[in-house]
Design goal:
Blueprint: H1 3-29, H2 35-58, H3 60-63, H4 66-90, H5 97-124, H6 127-133
Bound molecules: protoporphyrin IX containing FE (HEM) (2 copies).
One protoporphyrin IX containing FE (HEM) binds near residues 39, 43, 47, 48 and 107.
Length: about 140
């Protein structure tokens, strides 16, 4: 795994540790007020990023593109904004909502870009070149 795939997998693993630490803290303190923060760090941070990493690894033609790099930076920065925003919001300060809203919309735009990258790569490929995309190792 290299390039954008490796970048996505790196942030995925970091988010899995951060999200589980928050989950453990919630369980031990019996204060579940950060449930949405934990849930989104786990599924949006860990699982979504890991799925993007695996896709870009399996389809290296898409993974090496400039659009994939742009998708990575959009996703990395906006997910960080979302998680900080969620943490502050569920910590009891609703004034952070603008950051949360903008970050969520930017993350959505990044996922829209991913839809374009992924679907155009998959449907452009002929069966023979699609098979070629599967790494031999
Ligand atoms: C060290 C491991 C983990 C701990 C201690 C932990 C702890 C918790 C706790 C205390 C809650 C709140 C439950 C409630 O109030 O109903 C929760 C909810 C949640 N956790 Fe975790 N969690 C862990 C790992 C994970 C993982 C690996 C994922 C997903 C990949 C995950 C996804 C979720 C989701 C989606 C919710 C929200 C569920 C709902 O909407 O009711 N958690 N977790
Ligand atoms: C632009 C991105 C997203 C926005 C704005 C968003 C927004 C929300 C909102 C408002 C809730 C209800 C929170 C509550 O009051 O309990 C929620 C819950 C949830 N979302 Fe998302 N979501 C986003 C992305 C995702 C993604 C990508 C996933 C899964 C991969 C996901 C999984 C969940 C789950 C499991 C819950 C239930 C746990 C909870 O209550 O926090 N979300 N989301």
């Amino acid at each position: 795994m290299k390039g954008t795939a490796r970048n996505f997998f790196t942030i995925a693993v970091i988010y899995s540790l951060v999200g589980m630490s928050l989950g453990l803290h919630m369980a031990m303190s019996q204060d579940h007020s950060q449930l949405p923060t934990h849930a989104h760090i786990m599924v949006l941070g860990w699982l979504m990023s890991a799925v993007f990493a695996v896709f870009y690894h399996l389809v290296p033609g898409a993974g090496a593109s400039m659009l994939a790099k742009i998708h990575f930076w959009i996703a990395a920065l906006s997910s960080l904004g979302m998680f900080i925003g969620l943490f502050i919001l569920y910590g009891g300060d609703p004034s952070i909502e603008p950051l949360l809203g903008v970050s969520a919309m930017v993350y959505f735009a990044g996922t829209f870009l991913f839809a374009f990258i992924a679907l155009s790569a998959l449907w452009r490929a002929s069966p023979a070149s699609a098979a070629h995309h599967i790494p031999a190792e």
